[in-house]
Amino acid sequence: MAEAFSLIHSDRSCLGEQSVSSQSGNRSVRVAEKERRKNEAEDSFVLALKYFTDVEAGTPVTGNDDFENHLVQVEKVAYSRGLAPEAIATMLEFAMSSRMGNGPCVRVLKCLLPASVVPQDCVVRAVAWLCVGKIPVNTKVLFVKWVLTVFDMIEAKDQLRAVYGFIFSFVTEETLVRVWHGYNCLCFVVLVRVFRVRKLLELQSKLGRQPFLLHLLSLYKVFCPELVTLSVPSRMRSGFKNHVNPWKSALIGVQKRNGLQVASGISLTVASKEKTNSRKRKLCHLELPAMNSVVNNEAKTEQSYSLKVVPLVQINSFAQLLENMHRIELPAQMGSLLSSSLALQYLDCVQDESALLRLNFWLGHAFQEEFLFSGDGGACQNSEETLQFLNRLLCAQNFLQEGFYSSETFLYKFLTLWDGSLFRPQILGLLSNIPVIPSSQIERLVFEPLKQLYFTSSLFFKCGLLECMTNMLLRWLTWHSVYALEDDLDISLNSHTSINMTLSGFKDSVMELIHFVGHLACVGLRLEGCHSLLLSFTLDFYETVCDTFLKYGLPLLVMPPPGVFYPAFLATETVSVDRLAFIMHRYKINLASAKSQEKLTEQAFHISRQTISEFNHYVVVMVNCLWNSKMFHTGPGVQLREELLVKSNVPQYWKRFDLIHHHAFMSYAFDFHNQVCGKKSHPWHHSKPWGWYVEYLFTMGFDGLKQFVQTLISPQLPAGITQNQNQQT
Amino acid sequence: MSLLKPFSKLPNINTASILLVESEEHLQQSLADVLVEESSITVNVRLAKSLPLPKENDKDRPRIDLVVFIINLSSEQSFISAEASLKYLDPGYFLGKVCFMVTSARSAAVPTERMDAVRKLAASLHSPLLFAEHQTSEGVAAAAERLLGILKVSAGVVPMTTALYLSNLTRCTLPTDIEQPSFD
Amino acid sequence: MNDPGKCLLKRVIRRIPANMLKTTLSHWGRVSDAQLQSVDFTTSKWALTEKLLNICEENELTVKHVTELEMIHVIDYPNLGMWYAFQLFDPDDAAPSVDMTQFKEQFKFHLSKLMRNVSVKIKKHTDEAIWIRVAWGDGFSRPNHMKPTYVVHHLQSSYVFVTRLTSKLKPLLSQALVLSTRYQGIKDANLSGRNLAALRNLLMRQYQQVFSTKFSTPLAEKSENISNPQIEREQAESATKRHQMACEAFGDGVLPQLQSAVYKLETKFRDHNNKTMTDREEPFKCIVKFTSTNLLESLRHCASSGIASTPVTPLLSSVPVKGRNYFVITDNVPGSSSQTNRPQK
């Protein structure tokens, strides 16, 4: 604080000198200006700046052509190219000192568009002027808004931090608080102090639960949860409206014209091409902000800080990151982390949770205010922007191999309002990234809304959802295999969140998921007439499910429901039958190894008898139909009376689904017949031609079938084929 | 009071009829335009502002297989009108032949109470609640596609399933208290 | 040229859009073609003004000439201010025979008698409208050209449109108008809006009006556009009826642009649930204001889409019928529940 006081002091003395010198200089400047009227624009701009530096306090504004003329010059330059740092300093000084009254102040502030950087000193001086108190509130608000807009362009922020206390004191002015939200993007963790929190709480008791105060408090809570004990209501909408920004479009224009001049400081590994127009969140709401682009020149002078910090922007390689891991300064705009792989790597390995919390807060805000509850409920105007944002987020999540907490909460809400087609690939992608949900919540949060969407949506949505569920299961299983601590059966699900789940809890969740997808697939196949595309996605899922024990070490085996098994088995495409055979083969291997482990160690899990009997039933059906030509003969499944079957007039009905007559294999049988037997009709089911036929099928690439036959029918093929066949023919 | 009855008329072969009820008449026309494009069956679309339907059309009105109430969440009137129309439907319709379609659900202007009220209404009638992005043509097309799926089932065109079965799977559940983001 | 002239010129130039400046200036006719050629119209307004000031100095133009330029601009862009309509009543026998020159002389004569320092400029526009520009002074100061009043009047019509008139000067202008048009009196027509043409069209009924008939109207046929036979509107008939009624009330096609309608209620508060307010003797005063970029079209849409009930309440339909958009509503008979709108003044 003392520092700030001295600032004001020096400021005043400075002003005094200026006004003395300007009195004499004023007239001559005017004369000179007359002479050089026809000079180039550059000169007149310099002149204009000189005018604003020297102009006397109390000069009238109305009817002052010189003033008008000069200001027009400055505006022209500002809107076309942006202002140089010195020009910014001059104009800001002029505006905030209100030497010509408050009238021109607003106009000047509006044209303060930096071409490159904003010098810190001038901002600090302006804050000092703010404290003098001559300036009306709306101008103050405008100034704060300006600072927020150009915040990432300010060269260095060390001194600004020092005067934060002053800025904070304006909190009491209600109108200022409303624009305050962004100011906390300054996010100086060190600045959260007990007395400030107390002050805010005091203010809240005076004004009631104002949304902007709550936002501020919730922000503080992010940084120092121990200071803010107040419970902040979770549903907060539109606490701060900082979309209306007088500089937005102009600044974009200036920056576009200047090309990459500003972004030159950025050296990100994932520097993308689209980056040129994504500058700050306030400019384009959903765009990722670029990382603070101004290189801190005064890093060496920051000795006053006990710990020398290194901004993340300055780190260019992984080695550098490792070196400076302990003293990294995060950028003001957390969203920029998403686009830099180094930053993501930092997030991944850093122990401090505050970075992740801040990123989550930013994400949550972006989702909530600008996507989920977009002002007009339509996404047409910024769908391109949103798409880019979601894709970037997905990219980051895939890089980290885990979802962000805020995207998770967003999804739970969004799924209940989703029409099933808006950003479908992105939403399903995000959905497949969510971490394990306790089985008590999973139904309510995810399954219920998805169910309603699934059954009313098109085939492609159904396929997409099944794929998403497969990915989700894969991810969960991978987490399990990575984080499972085998001794105490306790797993930490996520490297950052501290949710711990017991193994049985995890198993319950996975089981819920598998049953849910089984149900979806079952009914979906029925509704879509066993569409082969849907069947393929269903089998994809079960290819993961059948291997949970061996591949991912999860002691859990769930069989597919009959509604999945039979459509796959009776499918017209050979591929589906082949894949089903492969899945059954994997089940067999998993079950066998689980059994053997059960015998070996007491610890291993107990496979329920039902699972085994289901498995046996399926295998018997498959073998009987495909191999033994004994359809309808045994098993607890489909039972039909003999008379009925005879009545159907299907000749040799028991053979309808053997490897020869099954409609998936019929064409192969024909082919084989033509190739091998020629015109002569051989009794097919004799062991020799049968063996040849099976061999032929194997050579056609039906590996699943091959493995199925090898593991479940006769391990020493083809010698053992005969044993079943002889009974039949 | 003239009730609209689901089984008072015989169905036509390969034909399904859908009634779109929307008090604001914004979305129904564009939905109808997409719906009649369907090639696998003939889709008849009847548009209404509210129920009851005028008596004089009774004769040439086909059997209505599905009644859709389109509710614009940003307008209270829209919800009230739909609610008032419900009582002109025969109870038989609520066995899977009614669905609600909600627009502007993502708008910031929508009070949560209204959303909850719509959810409660749909849940109490065991009917599905669909959401639609009515502002883009893709959104309208997607909404029409979903309606068509339900319509086909309720018109009995899809083998192995019935309207009641499908509505059992898709009906809206009571509003759930979804966790809001909190950073505790 | 003196200072007021310079000021006025600067202001006029600032107001004329840059792309229109050249045409307006050539229309003005006070600047020669050669001079116009020498001006670079792509430079900034500020530089242009300087250049034009020099030219005007060269041509020795005065304030008078500059006011001509201003008039040209105002006639070209009449929709920049708020226009108020006034109605003349009780014409003399001589009223229909008043012609342009007569009116011009009379108006100038009467106004200058009422006020010493006043500068009047009258110009006949192509569409037979008389445009009058009055710069007011007072007994001691010269006419202030920075705050002129504009008056538009069509001879042989009973309406006058005025903009930028202060209440203090209203009686003077009214008297001059009444005398020069040979009417007995003038009153406020309770109609205002930003679009001058719209006010005139509304008052002179120059928009497509629809009258109720028992037979099927062309409107109904029009709405039966070619649509897919598989799509049928169940309530098409009532929709057509509503549309018909809405058009009867507000007119068909493009409607005059009004920006607002104001209802000043001075009626008793009636609410069975709120005894304390209902029992109060004095009327409950409030103002209801409807605003829109095109109020009449909005109202028509409300009625035809069923948001507002049909038949349209007289409160709304009297905007086009009576040609006014300011109403004071009072209780007709104390105690009765019917409300009517009574023309005020």
TrEMBL record, chain A:
UniProt keywords, alphabetically: Centromere, Chromosome, Nucleus
GO BP annotations listed: CENP-A containing chromatin assembly; mitotic sister chromatid segregation
Any one GO cellular component localisation term in the record: nucleus
Keyword Cell membrane attached: no
Broad class of where this protein is predominantly found: nucleus
Subcellular location: Chromosome, Centromere; Nucleus
Any Pfam family hit: CENP-I
Top-level taxonomic group: Eukaryota
InterPro entries named in the record: CENP-I
Listed PANTHER family: CENTROMERE PROTEIN I
Family statement: Belongs to the CENP-I/CTF3 family.
Protein name in the entry: Centromere protein I
Gene: cenpi
UniProtKB/TrEMBL annotation, chain B:
Entry keyword set: Centromere, Chromosome, Nucleus
GO cellular component: chromosome, centromeric region; nucleus
InterPro entries per the UniProt record, alphabetical: Centromere_Cenp-M, P-loop_NTPase
Subcellular location: Chromosome, Centromere; Nucleus
Sections of the chain in a coiled coil: none
Protein name: Centromere protein M
Organism: Gouania willdenowi (Blunt-snouted clingfish)
Name of the gene this protein is made from: pane1
TrEMBL record, chain C:
GO biological process: CENP-A containing chromatin assembly; chromosome segregation
Domain of life: Eukaryota
Any Gene Ontology CC annotation: chromosome, centromeric region
This protein's UniProt keywords: Centromere, Chromosome, Nucleus
Cellular compartments annotated: Chromosome, Centromere; Nucleus
Presence of keyword ATP-binding: no
Family the UniProt entry places it in: Belongs to the CENP-N/CHL4 family.
The name this protein goes by in its record: Centromere protein N
Annotated organism of origin: Gouania willdenowi
